[in-house]
Amino acid sequence: MCGIIGYIGKKAAAPIILEGLRRLEYRGYDSAGLAVLGDSVLEVRKKLGKIDEGLAPLVKTSPVTGTLGIGHTRWATHGVPCDENSHPHLDASGRIAVVHNGVIENYDLLKQRLAKAGHKFKSTTDTEVLAHLIGENYAKRGGSGKEALVTSVMDALREVIGTYGLAVICADCPDLMVGARRGSPLIIGIGKDEHYVTSDANAIVAHTKKVVYLNDYDVATITAGSFEVSNLGADTANVQISNLEFSQEDAARGKHAHFMLKEIYEQPQTILNALRGRLDFEGATAKFGGLNMSMAELRSIDRIVIAASGTSWHAALVGEYLIEELAQLPVEVEFAHEFCYRNAPLEKNTVLLVLSQSGETADTLAALREAKRRGHRALAIVNVVGSTIARESDGGIYMHAGPEIGVASTKAFVSTLTVLTLLAVHLGRMRMLSANRAREIMKALEALPKQVEKILAQNETIKKLAQKYHKAEDFFFLGRGYTFPVALEGALKLKEISYIHAEGYSAAEMKHGPIALIDADTPTVFVVPQDSMYDKTMANLAMIRARKGPVIAVATAGDKAIAKVADDVIYLPPLLEPVSPILATIPLQLFAYHIAVARGCDVDKPRNLAKSVTVQ
Ligand code: F6R
After folding, report:
1. Which among 83, 347, 380, 428 would be 20 to 30 A from 100, CA to CA?
2. Which domain-ending residue is among 453, 486, 519?
3. Which of 2, 170, 340, 601 is an active site residue?
4. Measured in whole angstroms, how far is the alpha carbon of residue 118 from the centre of its chain?
5. Is residue 573 part of a domain?
6. Element (H, E) at 479
7. CA angle, 114 as apex, 108 and 119 as ends, to 5°?
8. By residue range, what is the domain housing residue 211?
9. Residue 540 phi/psi, 5° resolution?
């Protein structure tokens, strides 16, 4: 969603903030702004549109100088995207500037109260209300000095209901930046005689790898030379300095035209990273360092509920098939946002497993907290090290996929599936999975990186197919068994980045209604590897052909029957059924990517979307 960067030190703040904003832009890109403390005056520049089309040219024609500043990229929650609604927002005096991620739920009530007291608002955002509230507190405290500012921020935060990651600066305090978090991440970056705040480490990794992840209700008082953290709800704050595990190069696009393509191409490596050190062929099992559960505790799990959102929810469906088949453990998959509010019964030995690339998705975090509140153990599979879900879960497994910048998730999905397969083997070996079968699956996992490379080598063929079909306005994606969730994911990728209407279904479900939509202009992508569902899926495919629907098949190399019934075929190497979702996903990612490019869409910044959805 939105992104925050702040700087305090000896260097010019504006270039650091602009560069940081560019690195954050994948999180939200409807507008951007910055405030820099010049000669005792806050200079604010903000503009609708992407950074290099709006804010950067504005700063070029109207420069700002100073060594203290804050910046923001916005993904609108309150109020349309426009210059006025962009952050930073100022208080009534114009001497306090605020950037904010999250949602202030009681902003309307606060706004009415402030309006009665004479406050005038320039925007329709909740953040401007927060800025005015801080300003009002500050004025009441005599309106000067560091202590007054920090206390005014704290008092305001005690009044607001909702979520925030925020940074505040004030024209009266040239050596002070205040940061705070509740429900929306904020990180302090530690440099030499300088500090940063950001909502996403990607923005600062070029400057420092030493960071502190703030916890909920933390308020940080930051100067160039030091920082202090207090907590609104506790006597002391828990401050730990961590090291970022990735580099500036990992977060750069390199030679690829888009981050999404780069991340698709990284998948042989990210699968290796997910497997590294986790395959125990001698014991015929997978091993993990961070589950924080004894063998006996793992053995006593009776049921797993997997909660996730979006692409991660599709991964959860694959997880259900894997764990039920390999470990014979009942699994239920929930949309995280439904799980939190529907009071689902959870039996004593039920464990919640959440899946999240970012580790910050508000819906998924709420599911995790709900399960913990109800006394259940909550595990997580997460990509971003140090993220809130990673820190709040009772144990878990990191994907180690490196930064995922493309808004449409690709490599993280495949990494999640890899980790879920390992987990299913691990749980299975404590139950009924034979050593031979476990080894067979582990060997299939080991073989994946080379097989993925073979699929990536078909990029040009897939690009040609995309050019053939890119004008279609409706698509179906169908699969059965393990490839049913893959079909859902293929449809989601296409709709997200190309804006083509696409539906994913179980191939068998079509005949119960959706087949009414099939005609000669509606192509169907069939994921039909030679697995246990092959004959049945082929029968479903015949029904689509009988209605003149064009068919693009993702099938197994050597399958002669498919070439006769499909208009076009993308071939996968022969594979073991439990790992088939990993490989079958990759051609669909490339297909969606090339269609979006052919339609002239902004692949890495699709309209209306943002990476890491930190509001509910
Ligand atoms: C789709 C996509 C989203 C995310 C979803 C959950 O390409 O990226 O659907 O999968 O917002 O995000 P995480 O996995 O970060 O919890």
Report:
1. 380
2. 453
3. 2
4. 41
5. yes
6. strand 474-479
7. 120
8. 3-243
9. -65, -35
Q: Are residues 575 and 506 in the same domain?
A: yes
193 half-sphere exposure, CB direction, 13 A CA radius:
3
Asked, for residue 615, whether it belongs to a domain, the answer is no
Does residue 616 carry a pLDDT above 90?
A: no
Nearest CA among 224, 226, 189 for reference residue 210:
189
Beta carbon of 358 within 6 Å of any ligand 1 atom: yes
Quote the pTM value. Answer: 0.91
| 409 ligand 1 Cβ < 6 A | yes
Looking at residue 312, which CATH number applies to its domain?
Answer: 3.40.50.10490
Residue 478 in tokens? 């169908």
The tally of CA atoms less than 13 A away on the side-chain side of residue 378 is 23
Same-domain pairing of 206 and 291: no
Q: Which residue has the tokens 């405290």?
A: 141
Taking each helix axis as running N to C, give the angle between helix 435-456 and helix 267-275, from 0 to 180 degrees, rounded to the nearest 10.
160
Gap from CA of 357 to ligand 1 centroid (Å): 7
Residues 532 and 409 in one domain: no
* Cα–Cα distance measured from residue 438 to residue 167, given in angstroms and rounded to the nearest whole number: 50
Q: Of the residues 436, 453, 470, which one is the last residue of a structural domain?
A: 453
The tens digit of pLDDT for each residue in 108-121 reads 999 999 999 999 99
Q: Say yes or no: 477 and 517 in one domain.
A: yes
Q: 179: which strand partners?
A: 167, 220
Strand runs labelled E in 174-286: 177-182, 187-190, 195-198, 210-213, 218-222, 227-231, 241-243, 279-280, 285-286
Residue 609 within a domain: no
Q: For the chain, what is the domain count?
A: 3
User: How does pLDDT run across 355-386, given as a tens digit for each residue?
Assistant: 999 999 999 999 999 999 999 999 999 999 98
User: Residue 234 sits in a domain of what CATH number?
Assistant: 3.60.20.10
